[in-house]
Specification:
Layout (H helix, E strand, L loop, with lengths): L9 E2 L8 E12 L4 E11 L9 E3 L5 E7 L2 E2 L5 E4 L2 E4 L5 E10 L9 E5 L2 E5 L19 E10 L5 E4 L2 E8 L3 E12 L6 E4 L2 E8 L5 E8 L8 H18 L7 E7 L6 E2 L4 E5 L12 H16 L8 E2 L5 H19 L2 H20 L11 E2 L8 H34 L3 E2 L1 H12 L8 H4 L5 E9 L4 E9 L14 E8 L21 E5 L3 E6 L7 E3 L9 E3 L4 H10 L3 H24 L8 H12 L5 H7 L5 H4 L8 H18 L1 H10 L10 H20 L2 H12 L3 H11 L5 H14 L3 H12 L6 H8 L10 H14 L1 H4 L5 H14 L3 H8 L12 H13 L5 H11 L4
Parallel strand pairs: 2-12, 18-19, 19-21, 22-24, 25-31
Antiparallel strand pairs: 1-23, 2-3, 3-9, 4-8, 5-6, 5-9, 7-8, 10-11, 11-16, 12-15, 13-16, 14-15, 17-18, 20-21, 25-26, 26-29, 27-28, 27-30
The protein binds ligand BES and zinc ion.
Length: about 900
């Protein structure tokens, strides 16, 4: 319970336009060591599109009032009041200027929303509703205003003073203080406001847009990180060029600034002209960052840059439309990465995340549509569903209208809504209008939760050479949505001949006769698609590139899967065929373990793997994906009730058996995939290193000698990628080597908390029951800090979300540990606490006694004083299913 009050839900259907508009904002922010003073001057008027009102209500949270003035006249005690933080003035004219002055305490702000301190600097995070913790305002995304901001602080401690837009003035104040004035020419909602003050060094570059405008690029970091910003800067330039080439979208200000912040709840934030980034997504060099870190930096830098058009220039009407910017922008960053690296590997990685985590969210008590209909706390809806499934919906639109059609649609959307706040309907309407089609029925995807299941059956008539695919769809009920309507599901298919060749298609199902791929659009409960003129029964390659976020069921036999794995031209489906083969073997293995036996590995899987290994050199990055067996997390979607220990035992047994069966090929690959020369990040080299890391992890399970090889790799390499490969390989092998390597890593990086996060994460995910004690011990490590989200994510997030065997310990000690941490954390940082609490969401699905222990922990949480954030997760978890 929260203070005995039940928080009120915000509902989409209650949306009303704001009663007032704000045309201009003038902020004066004075920063001191004990507090900050915010003077705000708002030029306001009644909204002509809303019912007339005299009463003004401005959002505020935790602000100490100092004074107010309306049209220059000071307000007296009876003229205003504060109710649950909000400022209420009962009588205001049609148009007026409101001045407010308040005090806040950034130094005490551990929630990291609003204005807060990170180390020696001041910074802000306003999305979604942080601006109300800085000053009173209409804190909603459909109120767009022009901002002018003055930042004032002590010059010696805070030589750098930044805000959005262009610096128009700077100067000195008495007492060793100075100030800078910033103006943002583009109207924006307050969630895009940002401010930074600190002692930072700047790395500069310059980008000339396609139309010839020069843009200054600046990355700000603390001095000791100055040498680690080069890659982020290169990434930014690549992203800027890519958006011009793919969508014709150019940057629109003279400066683009990125600031690295150590204490940051999220990955990064797209504030207009002044992005704030978690240091983790900015800083990289060979010694401290892995190939994976480099790839993440490029994609996050791209993502925040792409928001400049999809989010900032065109913003949101309300927070229910969140996927309009996030789903679309994730889609854009996915396409960017696909173009920069390998499209099929990128697709595989994204689908793996979607299947293992978004599908799970969609099947549990927090299931919600991509456009939710109600929430208690908006911060809880920055979810995999809004982001990843949202991106899948945008991808389906592109599949339906084609790449060129999609580009036209996006440009029309931007043209229509530039400088305004939009809805999902506006986006879909622009896509439909630009392509002259009806996308009305497609909207259901945004409003219906749950993962649809598409069942495929086929028949073959040799006499006429006719092949038929019968498709049907159903979607399981989710909380509040017992009945589901059929969705528009694009199913991209190819047909393979017995020799592995792609068969040219013809017949009613095919738009262009002779093509080797067709997009079947399933928009009713069941439909049949007919292919004609075939000489032999084909093997269908279904849902190529994962053309829709669904569970596809088709009774492939093992031979067909092996055939697809060997011959499909679609790299995604080739991978997926291997995953389906492996999934079967693993599920049989789980059954065997549960019956007290030992998993046997079918020859079909061993042979299929042999082919993959034999072809490894042709595409190491793809092979690395193909060698990764379905994760324990993903397997838990298939085992009812979930039995984490049996899943782990079975998976390890299958892994070991496969590794022993292919010992020689693996040893050969370990040698041949070495990357000579000094480290440099480059996707093709990263693919080789990734493959080598996976191979090493297999080998340590088959060949004790490879534990020593891992140690040698750790000590012999010049880069973090190989070090992590070595640590990752020995992590699951108890023994002295593991502890020696862990100790070596700690000794080497003890003064670099960001690097030590990798080490916290490795400890946290050791798949052993004893990890609970390790985690408790590490919470007392000098580098651990509950107030730093990166530390929390690495240690507690790693343990609760990525260590099924450790967390789901038989005696419930893992749950108690995490529940204790949630309670401590909730008092400091509700957003982070709520995220950790999600580890308990699916408690009902676990076998006893786990289920009972999880419920006990949830009930303990429910009995405590909780933030709105954590309360929402805990109460939803405990609510009756339905
Ligand atoms: N707008 C978000 C950041 C954000 C999220 C702020 C939630 C406040 C609350 C930003 O564009 C974003 O989506 N960042 C992602 C990384 C991105 C690459 C998907 C993040 O921070 O995880
Ligand atoms: Zn985003």
């Amino acid at each position: 319970m929260m203070d005995g009050r039940t928080p009120r839900a915000v509902r989409l259907e209650d949306y009303r336009p704001a009663l007032f508009l704000i045309d201009r904002v003038d902020l004066y922010v004075a920063l001191y060591e004990t507090h900050a003073e915010i003077q705000s001057r708002l030029e306001m008027r009644r909204n002509p599109d809303a019912p007339p009102s005299e009463r003004l209500v401005l959002d505020g949270e935790g602000l100490e009032p100092v004074r107010f003035a309306l049209d220059g006249r000071p307000l007296q005690a009876g003229d205003w009041r504060i109710e649950s933080g909000d400022l209420i003035i009962d009588r205001v004219p049609e148009a007026f200027t409101l001045e407010t002055v308040c005090r806040i305490r950034p130094q005490e702000n551990t929630a990291l929303e609003g204005l807060y301190r990170s180390g020696d600097m001041f910074c802000t995070q306003c999305e979604a509703e942080g601006f109300r913790r800085i000053t009173w305002y209409l804190d909603r995304p459909d109120v767009l205003a022009r901002f002018r901001v003055t930042v004032e602080a002590e010059q010696a401690r805070y030589p750098i003073l930044l805000s959005n837009g262009n610096r128009v003035e700077q100067g000195i104040r008495p007492g060793g203080r100075h100030y800078a004035v910033w103006e943002d020419p583009y109207p924006k909602p307050c969630y895009l406001f940002a401010l930074v003050a600190g002692d930072l060094v700047c790395r500069r570059d310059r980008f000339v847009t396609r139309s010839g405008r020069a843009v200054d690029l600046e990355i700000y970091v603390e001095a000791h990180n100055a040498e680690r910003t080069g890659f982020a800067l290169e990434s930014l330039k690549h992203a800027m060029r890519w958006d011009e080439e793919r969508f014709g979208l150019e940057y629109d200000l003279d400066t683009y600034m990125i600031v690295a912040v150590d204490a940051f709840n999220m990955g990064a934030m797209e504030n207009k002209g002044l992005n704030l980034f978690n240091s983790h997504y900015v800083l990289a060099d060979a010694q401290t960052a892995t190939d994976g870190d480099y790839a993440n930096i490029e994609s996050v830098v791209g993502h925040e840059y792409f928001h400049n058009w999809t989010g900032n220039r065109v913003t949101l009407r309300d927070w229910f439309q969140l996927s309009l910017k996030e789903g679309l922008t994730v889609f854009r960053d996915q396409e960017f990465t696909a173009d920069r690296t390998s499209a099929s590997v990128k697709r595989i990685q994204d689908v793996r995340l979607l299947r293992a985590q978004q599908f799970a969210e969609d099947a549990g008590p927090m299931a919600h549509p991509v456009r939710p209909r109600s929430y208690l706390e908006i911060n809880n809806f920055y979810t995999l569903t809004v982001y990843e499934k949202g991106a899948e919906l945008v991808r389906m639109v592109q599949t339906l209208v084609g790449r060129e059609g999609f580009r036209k649609g996006l440009r029309l959307y931007i043209k229509r809504h530039d400088g305004k706040a939009a809805t999902v309907e506006d986006f879909i309407a622009a896509m439909a209008d630009a392509n002259g089609i009806d996308l009305g029925p497609f909207m259901r995807w945004y409003d219906q939760a749950g993962t649809p299941e598409v069942r495929v059956e086929d028949d073959w008539d040799p006499a006429s050479g006719t092949y038929r695919l019968h498709l049907s769809q159903r979607c399981p009920p989710t909380p509040g949505q017992p009945h589901k309507d059929p969705l528009v599901i694009p199913v991209v298919v190819g047909l393979l001949g017995p020799d592995g060749a792609e068969l040219p298609m013809q017949g009613p199902a095919v738009r262009a006769a002779g093509a080797t791929e067709a997009t079947l659009v399933l928009d009713r409960e069941t439909q049949t698609f007919v292919f004609e003129g075939l000489a032999q029964r084909p093997i269908p390659s279904l849902l190529r590139r994962f053309s829709a976020p669904v569970k596809l069921e088709y009774d492939y036999d093992e031979a067909a899967l092996a055939h697809l794995l060997a011959h499909d031209t679609d790299g995604f489906n080739r991978w997926d065929a291997g995953q389906r083969l492996a999934l079967r073997a693993l599920l049989e293995g789980v059954r065997a373990v549960q019956q007290g036996g030992r998993p046997q590995v079918a020859d079909a899987l061993v042979q299929a793997l042999g082919h993959v290994l034999a072809e490894a050199a042709a595409d190491p990055a793809w092979t690395a994906e193909a060698l990764q067996l379905p994760s324990e997390l993903y397997l838990s979607e298939w085992v009812h009730p979930v039995d984490p220990a049996a899943i782990h035992t079975a998976r390890e047994a299958v892994l070991g058996a496969l590794a022993r069966a292919h010992r020689e090929a693996l040893v050969g690959l370990y040698e041949s995939m070495a990357t000579p020369g000094p480290y440099r990040y480059e996707p093709s080299l990263a693919g080789r290193r990734r493959l080598r890391a996976v191979v090493l992890a297999w080998l340590v399970r088959a060949e004790p000698e490879y534990v020593a090889r891992a140690e040698a790799l750790y000590h012999g390499t010049d880069n973090m990628t190989d070090r992590m490969a070595a640590l990752g390989a020995v992590q699951a092998v108890p023994g002295a080597a593991r502890e020696r390597l862990f100790a070596a890593f700690e000794a080497r990086f003890r003064d670099q908390p960001l690097v030590l996060d990798k080490w916290f994460g490795l400890h946290a995910t050791i798949p052993e029951p004893g990890t609970a004690e390790r985690v408790r011990r590490l919470m007392d490590h000098p580098a651990f800090d509950l107030r730093n989200p990166n530390r929390v994510r690495a240690l507690l997030g790693g343990y609760a979300h990525h260590n099924p065997v450790g967390f789901h310990r038989e005696d419930g000690a893992g749950y108690r540990l995490v529940a204790d941490a949630i309670l401590q954390l909730d008092a400091l940082n509700p957003q982070m606490a709520a995220r950790l609490a999600r580890a308990f969401l699916r408690w009902r699905e676990y076998r006893e006694p786990l289920r009972g222990h999880m419920r006990d922990s949830l009930e303990r949480l429910a009995g405590a004083q909780l933030s709105k954030d954590t309360y929402e997760i805990v109460s939803r978890s405990l609510q009756a299913q339905g």
